[in-house]
Amino acid sequence: MDFLTHDRATVRATHNRAVLIPVTALITALALIATLLGAPRAAAFSITSPQGVDVASWQHPQGAAINWREVSAAGHRFAFVKATEGIGYLNPFFVADSKQARNAGMLIGSYHMARPDSSATAQAAEYAAALATQPQPSLPPVLDIEYAEGLGPAQLSSWVREFVTEIERLTGRKPIIYTYRYFWRENMANTAEFSDYPLWLAAYENQPPSDIPGGWNHMTFWQRADNGVVPGIVTVSDVNLFNGGEQQLNDFSAGIDVNLGQVLTAGIDLDAIGGQIAELEALGSSNRELVGAILAVAAGALAIGALVAVAQSQGIDLGPATEIVNRVRDLIASGDLPVPDLEAMLRSGDYTIGDLLILLKNAQHFAEQIG
């Protein structure tokens, strides 16, 4: 997903602890690095399900247009377009992308990027106003919740409750909740309060995740990667799958209840319907070795260059491994490496490399917008 502006004091208070790594965490990290083994590459993931993209201003570098007819021709059935973020931001491409994707024969949706440090009611109102400009019919509204911004689990739950209640009142539609595992488990205390809302889960891996947080027993949408190569889009793009068939997707968009109730199942090769995805086998693996290495680099116990070898040992190719290293280097240099979150991941051992990449990407976007 895409992020806009952030409060400097909040992010500094959250992330400016990059070198304060407990000795126990560092010992664990170094022990994990010492036991690294190479991981074989796996075949491309395949699945039977309508696929689609989600886009924001990031997919329009220097104002470049998206060719939605090419996106549709590549097999993408739906498109979520970022509408709003926080208070006072409307994606300048929202209306054009929505209309063009619709004209290309795609189902369209939207999402609001939550900024829980300001009023949920006000944010819902601005999002609802934006939705009034989107062609209909559309997929249900989406709350994208990925940042705590200094709020604890009880406060965040209250914020989400206020937002989803208000957006449903304003639009008459039950919203979808977009999140990822680490955020929901750690920042939302894995609450099951919202499990009757449709879930859109970001989980970068080659098999449908079965360890779904928050009391949900299935995903409605699965964001399977953020580096899809999609014809018609000049940048890489988030790519997604709907947990059901074509008719179920149409029914869901029309507001008809659909009974999904299971995780996605294997089927046709994704390469056959467009959007090649790299590293999915590696991204579904445990992230403990890579997290340990990043913490060791942050503490000065491991050279940054060694991180490339550690990432490659986990099955990540040189190009993506180098991107990870560059992101970590930039976050350390700016004081925005999310050390407390990395330590929590290391202690847990339950998160994937894909979860780690979402965390690092979010931290970098957060830092870039306040710089």
Automatic annotation (TrEMBL):
Q: Where is the signal peptide?
A: none
The family database entries (PROSITE patterns) matched by this protein are listed as:
GLYCOSYL_HYDROL_F25_2
Q: Does the keyword Cell division apply?
A: no
What keywords sit in the KW lines?
A: Glycosidase, Hydrolase, Membrane, Transmembrane, Transmembrane helix
Q: TM segments?
A: 20-39
InterPro entries recorded for this chain? GH (IPR017853), Glyco_hydro_25 (IPR002053), Glyco_hydro_fam25_subgr (IPR018077)
Q: Which SUPFAM superfamilies match?
A: (Trans)glycosidases
Q: Does the keyword Membrane apply?
A: yes
Domain of life where this protein originates: Bacteria
Which PANTHER family does this one have?
A: LYSOZYME
* Name of this chain's protein: GH25 family lysozyme
Q: Which organism is it from?
A: Corynebacterium pygosceleis
